[in-house]
C-alpha cells in the first residue's frame, strides 16, 4: 500500500473520531475501541517498526479490526464504524514509527 495514501486515510479516521467529541458517549466509545486496536497493532507490528511495515499491516485491517473489536466485547452490538476506528488507531500508532515525520 502507498504510504502517503494510507497516512491520508489514517488522518481522516482520527479526524472523524475527533468530530464526535460533542457526543461524549460516542466519543468515549470510539476512543476505547481505538485503544483496543492500538494494543492489537502493538502485538501485530511490534514496538519497533517503520511506516512501510505499518502500511503492510493496514492491508486487510478492516476485517481483522472488526474481529478484534468484536472479541473485545462479545456482548456488545457489532461495531458500526470499525474502519474509522482502525484508521484512527493506525494514525496514532504511526507516531511511533522509526521513520515517522509529521
List keywords for this structure.
single chain, 102 residues, mainly alpha, globular
What does this structure look like?
This protein is an all-alpha fold and 102 residues long. The protein has helices spanning 3-18, 24-45, 51-58, 61-72, 82-94. It has one domain (3-94). α4 packs across α5 (82-94). The longest helix has 22 residues, at 24-45. The mean pLDDT is 94.
Q: Please compute the radius of gyration using only Cα atoms.
A: 13 Å
**What coarse outline follows from CA principal-axis ratios?**
globular
Strand content of the residues, in percent? under 5%
Low-confidence stretches: none
Domain count: the total is: 1
Straight-line distance between termini: 19 Å
Give the helices and strands as they follow along the chain: HHHHH
Structural class, from secondary structure content? mainly alpha
Helix content: 55-70%
Number of strands: 0
Mean pLDDT: 94
Given the structure, what is the number of helices? 5
Biggest sheet descriptor: none
Oligomer: single chain
Amino acid at each position: 500500500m502507498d504510504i502517503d495514501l494510507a497516512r491520508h486515510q489514517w488522518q481522516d479516521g482520527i479526524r472523524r473520531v475527533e468530530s464526535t467529541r460533542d457526543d461524549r458517549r460516542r466519543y468515549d466509545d470510539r476512543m476505547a475501541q481505538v485503544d483496543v486496536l492500538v494494543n492489537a497493532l502493538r502485538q501485530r507490528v511490534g514496538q519497533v517498526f517503520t511506516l512501510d511495515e505499518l502500511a503492510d499491516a493496514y492491508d486487510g485491517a478492516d476485517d481483522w479490526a472488526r474481529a478484534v473489536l468484536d472479541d473485545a466485547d462479545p456482548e456488545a452490538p457489532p461495531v458500526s464504524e470499525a474502519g474509522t476506528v482502525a484508521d484512527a488507531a493506525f494514525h496514532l500508532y504511526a507516531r511511533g514509527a522509526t521513520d515517522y515525520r509529521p
